[in-house]
């Protein structure tokens, strides 16, 4: 029995040593990862111009814009008249780190604009993506007011009264979203 | 059934979180525009230069109508040549264009004199109906050329015009 005890003791020590040896060869290492998202930040840029009317035969009507560096561009057109087509450049810059695409909404709240008037934003390079620091190059707003065949003698005509006394307004929403190349899954 | 409500609650919360996450990758921008109309004052005669038309005077004048009187009696019955200049200005900001031009001649016998007696030709802005006045004190030169071999006394020439909004 005495030998049996020694044998069991040796066996326990041997198994313990095996455990120590096994543990030595299975060291665990950990990898810590941090994922920080970029920022999506589009702004109007370079729109503080006050310029002559570019698309009429005169310098009477003109426009001005404010809102450089912000998300709200205010466009003011003065001395508008029936038949005018005003073309106003709009520069949108990707000030963030995530490539963006621009989704242009339909102009709304077209207060008092005559029937048939249109406000269109074009050239926003939809589908091409704007990377960090890039700007639109051909974006522009085109405001058109239909021509009214109104002789001067009809000064009391309601259309004339509206023509001379009414100020118009409009708004347009633009959504900048993460650029997803067509044909690829996000 | 006890867990069904909890599952639905978790599902709704999950979808809500997804919505917030999706929205965070979009950003809205706004263009706000205001359009102010100009003023419409049509176009009017301004000054009249009669230095090129001897024996001619203004009989009456309004914004868009002038009547001239030509005293042929003082021309010693010689062939007459004269030129009258009268710039037309648009004081408004809305571009206008000439719509109609009307020239009438009345001889001493209260009738339209024959072409041999008096020939009146409009020139400058009144020469064609599509001429444009672009506004803001814009001046366009216009005038009349008078010629003929009158054998009578005074003749009256009236020139009037109407305008309308410029049609692009």
Keywords:
heterodimer, A: 186 residues, alpha+beta, three-stranded antiparallel sheet, 17% helix, 32% strand, B: 168 residues, mainly beta, five-stranded antiparallel sheet, 1 helix
Write the layout of secondary structure elements.
The complex is a heterodimer of chains A (186) and B (168).
Chain A (H helix, E strand, L loop, with lengths): L1 H23 L17 E3 L5 E3 L9 E5 L5 E9 L4 E5 L2 E3 L5 E5 L3 E4 L6 E5 L17 E5 L13 H8 L1 E12 L8
Antiparallel strand pairs in A: 1-6, 2-3, 3-4, 5-10, 7-11, 8-11, 9-10
Chain B lengths: L1 H22 L2 E12 L6 E2 L10 E6 L3 E7 L8 E6 L2 E3 L5 E11 L12 E6 L7 E2 L4 E3 L1 E7 L5 E12 L3
Antiparallel strand pairs in B: 2-6, 3-4, 4-12, 5-11, 6-10, 7-9, 7-12, 8-11
Average pLDDT level of chain A: 76
If strands are numbered along the chain, what order do they take across the biggest sheet of chain A? 2-3-4
For the largest beta-sheet of chain A, the strand count, sense and barrel status come to:
3 strands, antiparallel
Indicate the radius of gyration of chain B in whole angstroms.
34 Å
Tell me the greatest interface: A-B, 58 and 35 residues
Structure commentary:
The complex is a heterodimer of chains A (about 190) and B (about 170). Chain A is an alpha+beta fold and about 190 residues long. Helix content of chain A is about 15%, strand content about 30%. In chain A, strand 3 (about 60-65) and strand 4 (about 70-80) form a beta hairpin. Chain A starts with a helix and ends in an 8-residue tail after the last strand. By secondary structure, chain B is mainly beta. Chain B is about 15% helix and about 45% strand. In chain B, strand 3 (about 55-60) and strand 4 (about 65-70) form a beta hairpin. The longest helix of chain B is centred in the N-terminal third of the chain and has 22 residues, at about 1-25. Chain B starts with a helix and ends with a strand. The model of chain B has no long low-confidence stretch (mean pLDDT about 80). Chains A and B meet through strand 1, strand 4, helix 2 and strand 11 of A and strand 1 and strand 12 of B.
């Amino acid at each position: 029995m005495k030998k049996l005890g020694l044998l069991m003791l040796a066996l326990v020590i041997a198994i313990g040593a095996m455990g120590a040896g096994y543990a030595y060869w299975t060291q665990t290492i950990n990898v810590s990862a941090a994922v920080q998202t970029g920022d999506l930040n589009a702004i109007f840029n370079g729109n503080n111009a006050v310029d002559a009317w570019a698309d009429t035969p005169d310098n009477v009507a003109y426009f001005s814009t404010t809102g450089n560096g912000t998300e709200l561009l205010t466009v003011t057109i003065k001395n508008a008249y029936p038949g005018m087509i005003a073309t106003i450049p709009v520069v949108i810059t990707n000030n963030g780190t995530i490539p963006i695409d621009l989704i242009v909404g339909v102009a709304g709240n077209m207060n008092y604009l005559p029937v048939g008037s249109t406000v269109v934003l074009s050239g926003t390079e939809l589908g091409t993506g704007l990377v960090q620091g890039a700007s639109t190059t051909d974006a522009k707003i085109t405001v058109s007011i239909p021509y009214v065949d109104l002789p001067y003698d009809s000064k009391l005509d309601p259309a004339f009264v509206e023509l001379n006394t009414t100020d118009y307004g409009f708004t347009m929403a633009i959504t900048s979203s993460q650029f997803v190349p067509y044909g690829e899954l996000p | 059934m006890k867990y069904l409500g909890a599952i639905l609650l978790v599902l709704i919360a999950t979808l809500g979180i997804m919505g917030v996450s999706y929205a965070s990758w979009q950003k809205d921008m706004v263009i706000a525009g205001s359009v102010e109309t100009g003023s419409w004052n049509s176009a009017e005669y301004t000054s009249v230069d009669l230095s090129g038309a001897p024996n001619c005077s203004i009989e009456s004048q309004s914004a868009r109508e002038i009547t001239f009187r030509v005293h042929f009696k003082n021309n010693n019955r010689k062939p007459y040549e004269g030129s009258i200049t009268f710039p037309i200005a648009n004081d408004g900001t809305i571009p206008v264009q000439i719509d109609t031009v009307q020239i009438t001649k009345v001889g001493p016998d209260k009738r339209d004199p024959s072409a041999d007696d008096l020939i009146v030709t409009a020139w400058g802005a009144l020469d064609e109906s599509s001429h444009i006045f672009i506004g803001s004190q814009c001046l366009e030169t216009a005038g009349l050329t008078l010629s003929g071999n009158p054998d009578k006394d005074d003749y009256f020439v009236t020139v009037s015009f109407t305008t309308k909004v410029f049609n692009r």
